[in-house]
Design brief:
Layout: E1 4-7, E2 10-13, E3 16-17, H1 18-25, E4 29-33, H2 34-50, E5 55-60, H3 67-76, E6 79-82, H4 85-93, E7 101-103, H5 110-119, E8 123-126, H6 129-141, E9 146-153, E10 175-176, H7 180-189, E11 193-199, H8 210-228, E12 235-237, H9 254-265, E13 271-274, H10 278-281, E14 285-296, E15 301-305, H11 314-318, E16 324-326, E17 337-342, E18 351-358, E19 366-369, E20 390-395, E21 398-403, H12 408-413
Length: about 425
């Protein structure tokens, strides 16, 4: 959070007081630091370079697919990891080089595959035999050949939240690593398919590096087996998954991660593809909200804010912890009070934090929910007919709205009465 700091008891993002953004755009609003995004990218790529790795970084857009965020990272040199036709369209619109786009995901439709083939993207990560056959048919019909990686499931428990663990045998992702040689043999015989890569991604928000070592060791063994079978393996897609601290975890050290990669895979002569998402975008954003009321009960004090679980669903969906900070910190020596920070939605799950210590707050005061740059705006909904909120990007002393606030008229305009109701 180095780009979100107090100056004269007021919280700034880079050189802009967050209160100025709230006054200009209203609340709630997502606020991203361009410097934080670029710094995270440079730290990540720097650690890989220091370890002597031949690496390409493809930003996992599912973390935050705002065009301005993608453009920021593309200018730094990032490619993109996409999981839908919509994300592919966003990557291209943001200026990502098609040759540095990887298409992941278990459920690519025929139309999405055709869209990606037409765009001439760099790599498809294949997760099932039916998908492989479909891609072959589309590519062959288009008179082209596409690069594929077979995504393997190494049956490694990532020791993360069960909803974001993707490398166990019971998870829907990838192809059982024990079947990979057969799949590769089939792929090599299909028209329009060039199988030269292996992909693996075992989960998200990993703070323990040992599952990476276990998974990468199994991949190295698989590469040796495939080369023995006569296949040319030139690329290894290692996915993402590095966790951030969220104020109560110990984030993994990038140098230790890069060392594990170098020890397990660095001697194989492969291009290594990395797909960080949360690590790049998470700490670069906050959700800025305003307190509507403070409600005292017999056992609790509730700070009711204008943001809700439809704007940031992680606490409700994953029991996720986000640090919460006041925009004005009086620093007057007064002891903090404990508040439950809650939203207006008619669900008890609409709670951002319980018994959080804050300076005494009241209606109209601003707070931020930290580390909300990843899996925040992208997972938002219009539940309770609450319009999607604005997003703002900051550079130095400048800020710009990079997604406008939706209004209820726009939502209603997308609906209609049935023919017999008019």
């Amino acid at each position: 959070m180095t780009q979100f700091e107090y100056k004269d008891n007021e919280l700034y993002v880079e050189k802009v007081p967050l209160s100025r953004i709230a006054e200009s755009t209203g609340t709630p609003v997502y606020v991203y630091s361009e410097t934080a995004l670029t710094d995270a990218y440079q730290r990540f790529t720097g650690a890989l370079a220091d370890a002597g790795l031949d690496a390409r970084v493809c930003y996992a857009m599912k973390a935050n697919s705002n065009l301005a965020v993608i453009r920021t990272l593309a200018v730094c040199g990032a490619g993109a990891d996409v999981v839908s036709g919509g994300e592919l369209a966003r990557a291209l619109a943001a200026g990502v080089n098609p040759a540095e786009i990887v298409f992941s995901g278990v459920g690519k439709t025929e139309d999405e595959i055709r869209q990606a083939v037409t765009a001439n993207i760099g790599q498809f990560n294949i997760e099932s035999l039916p998908e492989l056959d479909m891609l072959s048919q589309v590519a062959h019909a288009a008179g082209t050949t596409v690069n594929i990686a077979v995504r393997v499931n190494p049956d490694v428990d990532a020791d993360t939240h069960h909803k974001i663990s993707t490398g166990r045998q019971q998870d829907k992702f990838g192809i059982d690593i024990g079947h990979t040689r057969d799949v590769y043999r089939r792929a090599a015989a299909l028209p329009g398919i060039l199988p030269t890569a292996i992909a693996v991604h075992i989960g998200s928000q990993l703070t323990d590096l040992s599952p990476f070592r276990e998974a990468f060791t199994r991949v190295a063994e698989l590469v040796a087996e495939l080369r023995t079978d006569g296949h040319s393996i030139t690329t290894l897609d290692l996915g993402g998954g590095l966790g951030i601290d969220y104020g109560h975890h110990t984030a993994p050290d990038l140098r230790d991660y890069a060392e594990i990669v170098a020890e397990t895979l660095g001697g194989l002569g492969c291009m290594l593809v990395f797909e960080p998402g949360r690590y790049l975008a998470g700490p670069a954003g906050v959700l800025l909200a305003k307190i509507i009321y403070v409600k005292d009960s017999e056992t609790r004090s509730f700070a009711i804010v204008d943001a809700a679980m439809n704007d940031l669903v992680r606490p409700a969906m994953y029991e996720a912890h986000h640090e919460i900070m006041p925009v004005r910190d009086p620093d007057d020596g007064a002891p903090p009070r404990k508040y439950d920070i809650v939203g207006p939605i008619c669900e008890t799950g609409d709670t951002f934090g319980t018994e959080r210590p804050l300076p005494e707050v009241g209606a109209g005061d601003l707070i931020v929910i930290r580390d909300a740059g990843a899996y925040g705006a992208v997972m938002a909904s219009s539940y309770n007919s609450r319009p999607l909120i604005a997003e703002v990007l900051v550079r130095g002393d400048k800020f710009s709205m990079v997604r406008s606030r939706q209004d209820i008229a726009t939502i209603l305009a997308q609906e209609s009465f049935a023919d017999w109701q008019t």
